[in-house]
Each structure stands twice: as C-alpha cells, then as structure tokens.
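Protocol step 4 of 6: structure prediction from sequence.
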Amino acid sequence: MASIVSPSGLAQFLRLVAKSGLLGSKPLVSLASLVPLWLRFGGSLYTLAAWAAARFPNRLAVVEGEQGLSFQQLLEHADRLAAALQERFAMDSVGILGRNRIAYIVALLACTRLGCNLVLLNPMFGPEQLRVVLRRRPLGLLLFDLGFRPLVEEALASMPATGQPRLLALEDTPELIAKSPIGKTHPKPHKSSLTVLTSGTTGPAKEVRRRIKAAEALGLISSLLLHLQPHSGQRVLLAVPLLHGHGLATLALCLVAGLSLHLGKSRARDLWEEIQAHKIELLVLVPTILHRLLEAGAPSHGNHLRAVISGSAPLNPSLVLRTLAMLGQKLYNLYGSSETGVISLASPKDLLEAPGTVGHPLPGVTLKILDEVKNELPRGQIGQVWVSRGGQIAPTGDLGYLDPQGRLFLTGRADEVLICGGEKVFPTQIEERITNLLPYAEECAVVGVPDLEYGQALHLFLVLKPGHDSMETYAIQRDLEAHLPRTLRPRHITLLTELPRNQAGKLLRAKLHALLEAKPH
C-alpha cells in the first residue's frame, strides 16, 4: 500500500472510507467538518468524538452493561464535564485511575477538550508505585474509581499536602454533568498530550508521552479498513484496558468509523454471552483472554464474529492455530509499543502461513532490523527492531527478524537476552519450545540465573495443565533432557498456578526475579 502521507496514499484512504460508508451521504461535507475541529483541538480523541457526533448523532456510541450513550450524548457529556472541571479546578495535568467504564471515556474526552496533559494510571499499581509516579509527575487533579480510594489515600498519606492533587471520584462526575450547562470552555494554548505508563515487564514503569499524529492515525485506520472492512454501526467488544495503546487505538477507530463500542468484562462466560446477546462482530482482546475463551468453548449458535483482534502481548503460535481451527480465519494480530505506536498487523492469511508472525508494517511505517552498532541486517537474521515514521527512526526495545515475504517475527525483548555458555538465548523461543515439548505444560517462562559453568543458566517457571498436579520436577527435568542441549536445560524448576501478568497479558519477568530473590538460599 502507498504511504498514507503521499497523494496516492491519501486518495486510497479516502476511497476506503467512502466505500465503508463512514462519511455518510455527503462525504465532502463530512471531510470538511473535520478540518476546523482538528485545527482547534489537534489530533485528539475529543476531535474524533466531535466528528463522529456530527456524522452519526443518534447512533449508539458506547455501551456499559445496560447503560448506553449515542455519539451526540457522549459529546454533550464530555462538554458538560469539561465546563464543570474548568469551573471548579485549576489543572494543567490530570491523572485518571479507573477501569473500562463510560465515565472513564467521558473524562478522557473532557480533559482532551480542555487541552490538559493526561496521565493514565494503572489500577494494578501498589501504593508505593502510585506514590512514585505522583512525585515524578505532579497532578492538579486525580480522577479515580471509588474502588481505588484506599489505594489513593495510602499513596498520598506520606506526601506533603502541597504536592497532592485534588481528588474527584468518577462516580461523582454524572452529578457534575447533570448540573453543568454546555458553556464555553477555554482550551489551553497547547494541544492535549497523553502520557501512558509502559507495562514495566522487566522493571519499573516508564512514562511515554505521546500526541496523535495525522499520518500515524490515518495509517492505522486505513490498514484496519482495508483488512476488516467494517460497516457503519458495527458492534465492537473491547476486552482490553483503555489505558493501554491497544485499547485507545480501538476507541479511536470506533470514533472515526462510527462503530458501537461495548466495554466487556474479563470472564470468558460473560464475554461469550455479550457476543451472542449484542451480535458482536469485532472482538478486541489480549492473548490471555483469547486463551480463556477457547477453553470455555465457542457457543454453537448466535456467533456473529467477523474478526478477532489480539494485541498488547505476544500471541503464541499454538494459540493462533487453535483459534483458526475453532473460529475460522478471523484472527488478526496487532503489534505496537507505547513508545512508537501501532506498528504492524498480521492478517488471517499471514497467520495461517506463519502462525508466529506479527505481520507487515502499517502504511507509513518502515521497519529495520539493526545490529548492536546500527547496521541493517539481512532478512532472516535476528536484531533489534527499529521503526521509522516520517524519517524519524526509533528503537522498539524488541528483538526480531523479517522473513522473505517481509513479515515481522519477534523473538523477545532486547534487555531479556541471556548469554549461556557464550551463546545468545532468546527466552520466548525457549518457552515456546518447552511448551510444545511437554504435553502437560499449560504455559511457562524462563529467566536467567548466575551459573559458574555457563555464566547464566535457565530457571524455569512452569504452569501445569489441569489434571497434572502430581508431576514432580525431577520427572520434568528428565523429559526435557532428551530434547534440549545441556546449555538450554533449566537448572531449576518452580511450579506455579499461574504466571504473573499485567492487565494486557504481558509477562512480568521482574516479578519472577523477585520470586527467586525471596526464596531461601
């Protein structure tokens, strides 16, 4: 596909949008209505919401349980909340701590309308993690779910009063909205920015501050339109936290395309019921949720799914094949990072031919595989994945390679590579191999531990499938001996009931290292 920033790329994007009916009966008028919004509010979520309300005012925009708002109602709620916040609080930076709810989305839109710098806080934080973030990034206002009040109060307890944000529960925002007129608000001179916190899978969470760029947003939407071919009014079920890039990208797509966004729960049974009851056609999730859905078994009737998009965490090839066999060729694998945005998309055809791939780069994205001194490597060789948009190249922190067809495969994080006996060892490749070798292995993870002979050896954390609880570690060691070279055989094995993961399903290797440090020597 041509670059989205080129005339031919833009023309192709407009054709795709027109074909999907997303511009309504007057496409030129619809496009023209976006320009003043973009000039005033930048490439923000509020801009997209206002554009959706202009095109599809009465269409259902977002659903949470029995509650739903049209695009016009969603915009009005955001405008009223923005006016109320500006009247009551003086804030440049706002933090939001909550789970997927309509109130969360309304707060996002209201704050981006005001030009605030938003910080999306992770509900999985402990008091100390939250305290570190608040000290590092002072906030004028913290919006939070009431369920997180004990966490917030404990985090603020040891902070000086002058450095504490003002607090507002998301449960109290409907009252503010009801009492507030849609008055004039005065956005800050600068455009709103969004700070997301990386998962901290190998250490403390890092801040990543990003603004939506036109080329990036149009490139992602263009690729999704081409592959998914959504129609106006399509229902989307989101089982990914909104605070992650994957969830925010889904919200942005729904606002642009006029799709109805349903905020799903994490239990597989609840998700299948919602898929059936609301005739969901597009399901957005993480690999952990996908695994649970397959374990629960797909309903024999009422399944209207046209596409399942997985992202935010590595998708195991065996899970890919199970999904394709059970649901048909409906699976897509989306890859991106907090630092560089959405990078590539694997189609069902890609996954059928190469189950381990994360697909081809999106329009406007250039991928390069570089060695330690930034020399470009030929296809098939593993190196660091670098991404370029508009000429600016940046590392993703991931390792991978390109196959002859230009599809990207990931082999792990650059900071996770182990050196065992002088050889580079990529943990994800070993984990996949062990899972395939052991019929009783549900999932596993390996981390490096100091070793006199090899410098580093492997410690295996293993989750057993149901019915295999009686397996002993010596028997597991014996089963691996026949298939793995000595340098790759785990020196020690720890059995767990589950691996530590974040909300997006990413493995938290730092917690595995903490488990080892806590073990008596």
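Step 5 (inspection) to follow. The longest strand covers residues 392-402.
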